Predict the structure.
Amino acid sequence: MGEVKVLGVDLAGPPRRITGICVLTFHAGGEDIRKKTKARGAVLTTKGEAWEESLLRFSACYFRSVRTDEEILSVAREEKPAVVGIDAPLSFSGKPFRDCDSAVRHLCPVLPLTFSGMRKLAERGMRLASKLGALRSAEGRRVDVIEVFPRASERVFETRMEEKLKDVLSLARNRHEYDAFLCALTARCYFEGKFQALGAKEKIIVPLV
């Protein structure tokens, strides 16, 4: 398959606030594992290399701080990612918590979606996800748009890669870009089949390392 791109988006509620973006480019080997399975435990590594070390091996990584949906969509159209990981609720039924919110609580606290700010974030996230999902990746497939939670991903990653994550933090210009990196890294985990989907109906994707 060659090189693949994934996009991480740390989405702000109102466009006047900063949204962090991170694009990761990495070598995926010869096969798209999504064609075979969505289950946990499928791992692609370089021979003799621990998977978490392979995870942080990428050919390019760049950050941007943007504000509008059109800026986000412009990056996605240009980069043509296989997966977009968005830090925002991508569903809302009017209830304070979804089953996926309850499922992720063992990793980090979750705010109720009935809070005004969270409701606005969910509304923006759903609109953006719909537009991103209509785009095509460089491989010609529809872009996979997944809901991720940087704090949950960080909790998982820090069990194995805490020091290496600190190196990346020094490259990001602000916390939004760093969270976007965590979103992108989780999107890579999803692409490579090394993830857990929390929730029965709605899903929050977290990495497995």
